[in-house]
Amino acid sequence: MMKILRKKIKGQEEMVGFALIIILVAIIFLVFLSVYVKKPQSENIDNPEANSFVQSFLQYTTTCEQDSENITIQRLISKCQERIPCSNKDPCIILNNTIKSIINESWKVGPTSYVKGYSLIINVGDKQFLNVTKGVVTNNYKIGQQDIPNPKEESTLVLFYAYT
Amino acid sequence: MVNKSAQMKNKKIFQLPNKKNGQGMKSKISPASPFAKKAQMKIQQMSFMLIAVFLFFALVGMIIITVKFSGLKQDATDLRDRNAMLLASKLANSPEFSCGEVYGNQKTDCIDEDKVMALKENIGKYENVGKNTNFWGVSNIEIRRIYPKYENITCTPVNYPKCDTIILIDKPISGFDHSNFVALCRKEKYKDEVVNKCEMARVILWYEEVK
Q1: Which residues, 6 or more positions from A125, have their beta carbon under 8 angstroms from its beta carbon?
Q2: What are phi and psi for residue A112, nearest 5 degrees?
Q3: Cα–Cα dist A58/A54, whole Å
Q4: What is the rounded average pLDDT for all residues in chain A?
Q5: What is the rounded distance in angstroms from the CA atom of residue B69 to the CA atom of residue B77?
Q6: Which of A27, A82, B42, B110 would give a disulfide with B99, using CB separation of 3.0 to 4.6 Å?
């Protein structure tokens, strides 16, 4: 009788030991898993292609005329803010149309293409001045930005997101 | 007699070393006893458990290493693409291509189209310089206007500037390419005045396939 009892107690001890090992291993595995899941999949940092795009398109010569010279998009943004017409044309309409045409030709958006969508945002100070968005907005994106300082007014920030 | 000699041998196996005189010490537990058998079983159980735990950790470790290495490969590809794009920008900002201060302030990612057309005529001077095929170490350089477009015409001194693509090196294009956006600027006559005109373009660098 005593022998059977002793054997039972021994068996229980071993089972507890085994369970403890399994719990320990499970905890270690969970720690590894949580560390891996917490790590961001991809960091969306400034991309040279998106940055070059922003730099280049700001230098584009528009159809807006001032002092017998066509001005760049960079200057047209401030003109649109100040609502100064260019040769009887609305600078904001020219700005909007030019930006849309340039982006459409530069970034081919579609479900089968690498770029699924894009957003061009122009912020003046804390306020959003212009937002051109097309296609699907995803969590993976290339970002390009340029800050245009303005000594008279609030500085302008041009942001471009290419969603992949 | 046989049994006795066998018992003696077993006893020798279970002799523990004596630190003082180097002679063995007789074990109190006989190998034939049920305690010894139980201990052997325990050792066996423990060894199996250790092997199982070791295999489990090895498996988990292998999975983690695989996952980490797959990410590393993607990082390497991203870095290579990033460097290639930066090289395209670096080329656009080199003295042979850059706008400098001709179009106002110093601009980045700006290519002087007039300068590039002049360079195209003298590209022979840049051949066989350095280790690679030419000065820039690429097989070809192409500048393609993307906005506005002129029916995909290749630029020559005759049709310039109403053309789209400037191919710098007159060789068949092969291998792989990397490209980046640039502003393509030139001087233009407008109402009897010389004005600046900048358009959107892509600078494309072609590399030979490594065999």
Answers
A1: A153, A154, A155
A2: -95, -15
A3: 6
A4: 85
A5: 12
A6: B110
What's the pLDDT tens digit per position in A107-163?
A: 989 888 889 999 999 998 888 889 999 999 988 888 999 998 877 778 889 999 999
Q: What is the pTM of this model?
A: 0.69
Contact yes or no for A157/A147 (Cβ under 8 A): yes
**Separation of alpha carbons B56 and A25, rounded Å:** 9
What is the spatial distance between Cα A54 and Cα A51, in angstroms, rounded to a whole number?
5
**Which option is the CATH number for A48-163: 3.30.1360, 3.30.980, 3.40.50, 3.30.1140?**
3.30.1140
Give the residue among B158, B73, B50, B155 at the shortest CA–CA distance from B113.
Answer: B155
Question: What pLDDT is recorded for position A29?
Answer: 80
Beta carbons within 8 Å of B108's beta carbon, 6+ residues apart? A55, B89, B93
**CA of B182: which chain A residue's CA is closest?**
A56
What are the residue ranges spanned by the domains of chain B? 33-211
Length reported for chain A: 164
Q: Say whether A61 and B199 touch across the interface (CB within 8 A).
A: yes
| ipTM surpasses 0.90 | no
With both helix axes pointing from N to C terminus, report the angle between A91-106 and A73-82 in degrees, rounded to the nearest 10.
140
On whether any CB of chain A is under 8 Å from the CB of B187, the answer is: no
CB contact under 8 A, A69 and B193: yes
B122 pLDDT exceeds 80?
yes
Q: What is the DSSP letter of B15?
A: P
